[in-house]
Amino acid sequence: MLSTERSGGGRGRNANAVDDSVSDTPRGRFPKTAHLLKHSDFQRVYKSGRRHFSGNMTVFYLRTQPEVAPEPNEAGAAEELCAQPKGRVRVGFTVSKALGGSVERNRMRRRMREAVRHHLLMLECISGSVDIVINPKKSSLVAEFPQISQEIERAFRVIRQNCGIAGKKIGEQEARSR
RNA sequence: CGUUGGGAUCGGGCGGUCGCCGCCCGGGGAGCUUACGCCGGCUUAGCCGGAGAGUGCUUUUCGGGGGGAGGAAAGUCCGAACUCCACAGAGCGGUGUGCCGGAUAACGUCCGGGAGCGGCGGCUUUAAGGUCGUCCGACGGAAAGUGCCACAGAGAAUAUACCGCCUCGCGAGAGGUAAGGGUGAAAAGGUGCGGUAAGAGCGCACCGGGCGUUCAGUAAUGAACGUUGCAUGGCAAACCCCACACGGAGCAAGACCAAAUAGGGGCGGAUUGAGGCGGGAUGCGCAAGCAUUGCGCCUCAGCGAGCUGGCUCGGUUCGCCAAACGUCCGGGUAGGUCGCUUGAGCGGCGUGGUAACGCGUCGCCUAGAGGAAUGAUCGCCACGGCAGCAAUGCCGUACAGAAUUCGGCUUACAGGUCCCAACGCUUC
RNA sequence: GGCGCUAUCGUCUAGGGGUUAGGACGUGAGAUUCUCAAUCUUAAAACCCGGGUUCGAUUCCCGGUAGCGCUA
Predict the structure, then answer these.
(1) Distance A73 CA to B265 C1' (A)
(2) How high is the ipTM of this complex?
(3) Helix, strand or coil for residue A134?
(4) Domain A30-177 is found in CATH 3.30.230.10
């Protein structure tokens, strides 16, 4: 676990440390195209995804291979279509009405989104695309922001580990077949 | 200055770092298309072909500018705008509103006025009551009708007589009463004096009511005068009556584009053209008529017996049906675009009106998302509480998040500011 | 987002202005039985909250709260 952390995220953490010394909050982008938007995507993640439990949230994630299923009929544009979803990570939030009024729900979702934005660079190296759904719990409203950020970081590390192991296994199998 | 009540208004501020969603400007990339322009060819008013975004559309990225939750955005309780559906008119039914006048696009909202069946406080009075101030309210109708008024109580609705009182009578009892007691939420005008066997509007005075006239007022209503001794309660947020209003659904309304899959329809497949006659459909037109489309019959000309299957089998002729396939059209799902923010808009000034509000003029543009942006974090200041002599430290800063848009109502709310009224204290 | 409905013992329900709020299942106690079950007797246990109308409200009216349903 420590070795994977050092090998995989060492550069990113160094960059974060540099950013911390210069400015307060780390850089990171979380535009609309990285959001999970459609109801069917949410249902697919809930139905066939894996789960990771944490103190203030539950994280569902599902690895998808979009270059296998629909795209290969267009041979000319296959390059860009493969290049585009290669590192595509989409994250969605589900905050149900049972967690409070709209002000509290908005605050939970915004803090979660901010924490996801800070750590989204960790998942850049994953081949293929991952859909993630985060369900906050009611305790995340009063929790401190560094704790939430830490939990998100741990969840992302697990996701990266699982998906990375899968990729490694595929690579080993290919090497053995060769 | 303080307390209480009412009203209006604001709803923490500044900065650092990193972000999110629209809009505008500029640069780059990708995709689509070819109207103008370019190139080439030809049978040259033009046609055909090619490359390609310089002008186009979509998308993405970078840089800059500017904007980005509320007084209640909430509850969805009323009223409208807007959209679709339905619709000859009227009635019944249903729902809602309810003093009077006005404002308004409309309202159950607002403004002004009236009355009190209300609460509180002051004054007056023996009391009933009157009067003043303030607050308040879903304040039409109870001799149009129906219904209900439990228990208690003698009696609870065109009333009754338990204990009483008085008269007659030895008594049993009979009669007259409704002052007093008692029950109740409510007992049939109130107080006082007279009167009486005892009593009673039985008579009188005052108060309260009913009716009528006059005056004031747009009206609700009020005042004055006259008259009437005055049994006839409460509940209509019970049914109901009267007056007035209301078609239904709601932006997930609705409009447009439209993948994949399945399915529907037309034509070709399944021979061509011209003319005439007959009648049909659609569109335009008041009509006459015109245009388009396709059907039947006849005539003439042309092609020439056709590579699928079926109509019991085989041959010939004629005809019908169906399939593969091709092409066109329509409905429509996922998805996308519009509706979507310039509006009964906001502010200033003037003016009419007691006011709500109206009119005129000048200025301004003020969120527009769509699994849903408007933020996260840090520091300083402000305010409040606690600890502390102090410095300072810690904690807290409400209610709450646009979803088509307005006008209201209701509900929630830390704290700050201003105004008005009453009362109390101090000073002049 | 819009529209509509409901709220009664622990659960399912009846009642519809009047003072003991009824029933069934469940719970507790007792009886019966050697014991349990079944049966019988008995007890406790509720009108979502706040205002208003009324003499009186679980019921009628208004406003909140909670739950449920329909709608692309």
Answers:
(1) 32
(2) 0.72
(3) strand
(4) yes
Q: What are A100-149's pLDDT values in tens digits? A: 888 888 888 888 888 888 888 887 766 667 888 888 888 888 888 888 88
A70 touches strand B (CB under 7 A): no
**Is the C-beta of residue A24 closer than 7 Å to nucleic acid chain B?**
yes
- Measure, in angstroms, how far nucleotide B250 C1' is from residue A9 CA: 55
The structure's pTM equals 0.74
Closest residue by Cα to residue A128 from A70, A44, A66:
A66
Q: Which of A68, A60, A65 is nearest to A166 (CA)?
A: A65
Strand B contact with A42 (CB < 7 A): yes
Domain boundaries, chain A: 30-177
Find out whether A137 and A123 touch, Cβ atoms under 8 Å. Answer: no
Q: Decide: helix, strand or coil at residue A113.
A: helix
Q: Is A20 within 7 A of strand B by CB distance?
A: no
Half-sphere exposure of A40 (CA within 13 A, CB side): 0
